[in-house]
TrEMBL record:
<dbReference type="InterPro" id="IPR050624">
    <property type="entry name" value="HTH-type_Tx_Regulator"/>
</dbReference>
<keyword id="KW-0238">DNA-binding</keyword>
<dbReference type="InterPro" id="IPR009057">
    <property type="entry name" value="Homeodomain-like_sf"/>
</dbReference>
<dbReference type="InterPro" id="IPR036271">
    <property type="entry name" value="Tet_transcr_reg_TetR-rel_C_sf"/>
</dbReference>
<keyword id="KW-0678">Repressor</keyword>
<dbReference type="InterPro" id="IPR001647">
    <property type="entry name" value="HTH_TetR"/>
</dbReference>
<feature type="domain" description="HTH tetR-type">
    <location>
        <begin position="19"/>
        <end position="79"/>
    </location>
</feature>
<dbReference type="Pfam" id="PF00440">
    <property type="entry name" value="TetR_N"/>
</dbReference>
<feature type="DNA-binding region" description="H-T-H motif">
    <location>
        <begin position="42"/>
        <end position="61"/>
    </location>
</feature>
<protein>
    <submittedName>
        <fullName>TetR/AcrR family transcriptional regulator</fullName>
    </submittedName>
</protein>
Length: 216
C-alpha cells in the first residue's frame, strides 16, 4: 500500500466521515511522522503543512499522541495486522518447502515486498512501537497468536529432517527473526539512502544465517 493508497484506505475506514480539515491533518501527519518521527514532529509543523490552525488539531485529537494512535492503531487493527497474519501465513506457512533455506528465502522476499508496499505507515510504527504500549500490545498479540506457533512447527520439522542444528527451536527462531528483521530495518528505516543491491544483500543475509544453522 503506497502512501496515497494508505490515505485513501484510512479515509474510507472511518465510521464517521472526516471533515476536509481532518483529512488534511491526517495526510500531513502521516507524511511528517514518516519522515521525521513522532518526537521530532511538532503540532505546529503538522498544522502548517495541513493549512489549518494548530488549535484545530487539538480540537479534533486532544494531543499529538492521540493523533498518532488515530493513524496507526486503526491501520494495525483493521488492515495491517489482518493482512500480515492471513497473507503471511497463507503465502509462507501453507507452502511446502524442501529446506529451511527455501523457507527463509520465501519469508525474506515476502516481508521485503510487504514493507516496500506499506512503507509510510510501517515507518511510523517501527519508529514508535518501542515508546507506546498500545502499539506493542497489538504487535505482540498478532505475532504470538498467528505466527509464532507456526514458525516453531516449521523449525521442528526441519530439525527432525536433519536440515538444521538441533538446538532449542526458540533459539533458531530468535536467530532467524533477528537476522531478517535486521536487514529489513537497515534497508528501509536506518539506511534507506544507501546504494543498495537488494538481491545481493538478501542472498548474503540468507547465506550467513543458513551457514550458522546448517547441520554438519
Amino acid at each position: 500500500m503506497s502512501e496515497n493508497n494508505f490515505k485513501e484506505w484510512y479515509n474510507s475506514s472511518q465510521t464517521k466521515p472526516m471533515s476536509e480539515k481532518q483529512q488534511k491533518i491526517v495526510d500531513a501527519a502521516i507524511e511528517i511522522f514518516s519522515e521525521k518521527g513522532f518526537s521530532a514532529t511538532s503540532t505546529s509543523e503538522i498544522a502548517k503543512k495541513a493549512g489549518v490552525a494548530e488549535g484545530t488539531i487539538f480540537r479534533h485529537y486532544s494531543t499529538k499522541k492521540n493523533l498518532l494512535l488515530s493513524i496507526v492503531m486503526p491501520a494495525m487493527t483493521n488492515y495491517i495486522a489482518p493482512f500480515l497474519t492471513k497473507s503471511f501465513v497463507a503465502e509462507v506457512f501453507q507452502q511446502e518447502h524442501s529446506s529451511y533455506e527455501g523457507f527463509i528465502r520465501t519469508i525474506l522476499q515476502n516481508r521485503y515486498d510487504f514493507v516496500k508496499e506499506h512503507l509510510s505507515v510501517l515507518k511510523i510504527f517501527a519508529q514508535e512501537v518501542f515508546y507506546h504500549d498500545e502499539l506493542q500490545d497489538q504487535f505482540k498479540e498478532t505475532f504470538t497468536e498467528e505466527v509464532y506457533p507456526k514458525f516453531l512447527d516449521v523449525i521442528v520439522h526441519f530439525q527432525e529432517k536433519g536440515d538444521i542444528i538441533d538446538v532449542s527451536p526458540q533459539i533458531v527462531l530468535r536467530m532467524t527473526m533477528t537476522t531478517l528483521i535486521g536487514f529489513i530495518i537497515s534497508r528501509f528505516i536506518v539506511l534507506p539512502n544507501n546504494d543498495w543491491d537488494d538481491d545481493l544483500e538478501m542472498e548474503k543475509t540468507i547465506h550467513i544465517l543458513i551457514s550458522g544453522l546448517k547441520k554438519r
